[in-house]
Amino acid sequence: MTSRRSWIYLTLFLAFSSNGPATEKNTAPVTPSAVQLRFRLTGDPATLDWNLARSSHETYIIMNIMEGLVEEGSDLKPRPALAERWEISSDGKIYTFFLRQGVKWSDGKELKASDFVDSWLRLLDKKTGSSYANFLFDIENAEAFHNGKLKNPSKVGIKAINNSKFQIRLKKPVGYFIHLPSFWVTFPIRLDLIKKYGKTWATPEKICSLGPYLLARW
């Protein structure tokens, strides 16, 4: 390189016709003729595992290949993303998210509410080593589970009511909580791939994602 500073490039291919997760009609594999998105990073990402990511080097990529329950609008108010709508109980302690219908992972597997349960429990598991597990401590029994005082994950206030309904129970009302599901560490995961591939599940050859772009190579 002629520059004294090394620049890291990752290539993303535009996978879908709309700015959103894959649906049944637009899950065709990426071809070399697809549109490319390139941007410059000032350092090499440490990981593309979004439960673990903690710097802009990772998140610039993750925010293009993934999506959360909600996203921040230009007015800094949450708006629907993977969740088409949500309900908050009158006491402000129960959040119920209704997932968009027909959303599929890049390998064609349907997105389910259990993918969020898997992600949030993995985030809280101290063995995962996430820097942001404490962001979920307002959830009922979440901190006790993280600290090992509670062994049964079903006692944590995180539940899949069915395939399209994800529910959260808080210890107390938290006014800003609706913004947290826009944070990348809360994005759904494919636990089957993590169990199969271990730490290499987030490499381009193995990763499955939900955003408007697919990671093609690193």
Task: Describe what you observe in this structure.
The protein is of the alpha+beta class. 16% of the residues lie in helices and 20% in strands. The chain has helices at 56-65, 113-124, 142-146, 191-197, and strands at residues 8-9, 11-14, 36-37, 40-41, 70-72, 78-80, 83-88, 94-99, 158-162, 165-169, 213-217. The strands form four sheets. The chain has a four-stranded antiparallel beta sheet, with helices on one face. Strands 3-2-11 form a three-stranded antiparallel beta sheet, with helices on one face. Strand 5 and strand 6 (78-80) form a beta hairpin. The longest helix is centred in the middle third of the chain and has 12 residues, at 113-124. The chain starts with 7 loop residues before the first strand and ends with a strand. The model is unreliable at 1-9 and 15-28 (pLDDT under 50).
The overall pLDDT average reads 87
Rough outline? globular
Number of strand elements: 11
Helices, by number, come to 4
Radius of gyration: 18 Å
